[in-house]
Amino acid sequence: MDQELLRVSGLTRYYGSRVGCRDVSFSLWPGEVLAIVGESGSGKSTLLSLLSGRLAPTAGDVSYRDRDGRWLSLPNLSEADRRRLQRTDLGVVHQNPRDGLRMRVSAGGNIGERLMALGHRHYGRLRGTGLDWMERVELDPQRIDDHPSAFSGGMQQRLQIARNLVTEPRLVFMDEPTSGLDVSVQARLLDLLRHLVASLGLAVVLVTHDLAVARILAHRMMVMRGGEVVETGLADQVLDDPCHPYTQLLVSSILQA
Amino acid sequence: MTAETMQGYNYAYLDEQTKAMIRRAILKAVAIPGHQVPFGSREMPLPYGWGTGGIQITASIIGPLDVLKVIDQGSDDTTNAVSIRSFFARTAGVKTTTATEEATVIQTRHRIPEAPLTDGQIIVYQVPIPEPLRFMEPSESETRTMHALEEYGVMHVKLYEDIAEHGRIAKSYDYPVRVQSRYVMAPSPIPKFDNPKMHDSPALQLFGAGREKRIYAIPPHTRVESLDFEDHPFEIQKWDEACAICGARDSFLDEILTDDRGGRMFVCSDSDHCARRVREDC
């Protein structure tokens, strides 16, 4: 019953002779939040692109178990199947909401897009779903016809989350979802994310350089450096009792409040 | 050929190799209804936007026995229509006409004639922007992938935006269609009033975009459906008025201002259709 959702083995990506990430293996279970931490340039974003099927690996495999229990190897899937999976079961929340939103389309259109791509053809119901999701991500439903450009950064990020969650994906990839937001907005967004993840039973792979974000959201952590995983473990364990010297350095460099 | 045919040019202006290349593109387009086929569009002796795509298709398919009709916004006597008609009269020596049922080839900008097209006729559309996904997706490689994988959700996002903003689907021309339940296609800037005429038409429909270098086609008797929502079905324009000249109530009407004090009249946009009704009534 409680089988893994994602199996990653020996995942490697080279950019020419430069290492993007090397020999990453792990499993992810339904409802689990895994944080990938490390300084910039450590291969976090490369790994996330590989995991979400947006980048082809040089070696290794990412397998996803679909709703029917079949294992699908993302790199070996046809482009059509991979893109279908990306619109239904998977979600990607980009660091910059402009990468994940259609800026010239209203909030409601943004939320409804994935449903329309799946063949929903009833305006009234699409509208209803849009209003419902506006509320669930704590956006004012009255602003459903506003364009994202009229939204603040925090609101755009909420909208991006709603746009991804509308098809009830099972696995969401988040790339620094809270960076670039001011501290109070960050806190509210983290609160919202924690609530959504728990209530929907989402599995999340979260990339962040902010250890505080990882501590609040993640069950498990993976520390990366120079394209390789140097330490993995339960989030609290890694943060409270780091083993690898690099992790110790990362943890000790957090400013104490 | 008539005596007035111009000397020093190849028949129908384009050289034979170019015409063969365009005919190959047309054949491919007919074989894959609604799919945009790239072709090596040539410089023509008129500017882009004046019908260079349509004129190259017409030049490639027209034979000495063909009878050509050219319309612009439904009318046979506007500048664009008159120029293109005389262009082919001079370069190909073909007979021209304004009567829809006499024509074997009809080149058109912005309209499909009111008189039903028949078996054996070819209608050539001038197309400014052939890519229906363009306004949502600026990348050409991405739109090609979307066509290949039948990812057409964004077309409905556009219609959704229309309803959200205007309370109805406000798009009134170049209204997107799905051809044979496969490709989504831009029907060129014809009014959506004409969309139903494309469905199951006995005529061959060819579309040429000169600047964008694309040809596409709808073979005779092909299913053509206009996109819509279940609760906002596709509708064509309706008028409260009848044509002020012929009294028609079922044709596409143009609104014409007659003075600067608010005077206006509605007349048929299809001048041949209107003139025929006047002739037959009197």
Task: Throw out a few tags for this protein.
heterodimer; A: about 260 residues; alpha/beta; four-stranded antiparallel sheet; B: alpha/beta; Rossmann fold; three-stranded antiparallel sheet
Written account of the structure:
The complex is a heterodimer of chains A (257) and B (282). Chain A is built from ten helices and ten strands. Chain A is α/β, with parallel strands linked by helices. Chain A has a domain at 102-167. A six-stranded mixed beta sheet of chain A has the order 6-7-8-3-9-10, with helices on both faces. A four-stranded antiparallel beta sheet of chain A has the order 2-1-4-5, covered by helices on one side. Chain B is α/β, with parallel strands linked by helices and 282 residues long. Chain B has a seven-stranded mixed beta sheet. Chain B has a three-stranded antiparallel beta sheet with strand order 7-6-10. In chain B, helix 3 links the parallel strand 2 and strand 3. The radius of gyration of chain B is 19 Å and the shape is globular. The chains are: A alpha/beta (257), B alpha/beta (282). Chain A binds chain B through residues 79-80, 83, 102, 105-106, 108-109, 112-114, 116-118, 121-124, 126-127, 144-145, and chain B through 136, 145, 149, 151-154, 156-157, 160-161, 163-165, 228-232.
Structural class of chain A: alpha/beta
Beta strand % of chain B = 15-25%
Strand content of chain A: 15-25%
What does the main sheet of chain A amount to? 6 strands, mixed
Rg of chain A, nearest Å: 18 Å
Strand order of the largest sheet of chain B: 1-9-8-5-4-2-3
Main sheet overview of chain B: 7 strands, mixed
Count up the helices of chain B: 7
**Order of strands in the sheet with most strands of chain A:** 6-7-8-3-9-10
Mean pLDDT of chain B: 95
Q: Please tell me the total number of domains of chain B.
A: 2
Total helix count of chain A? 10
Order of helices and strands of chain B, N to C? Answer: HEHEHEEEHHEEHEEEEEH
Give the helix level of chain B as a range of percent.
25-40%
Query: What is the overall shape of chain A?
Result: globular
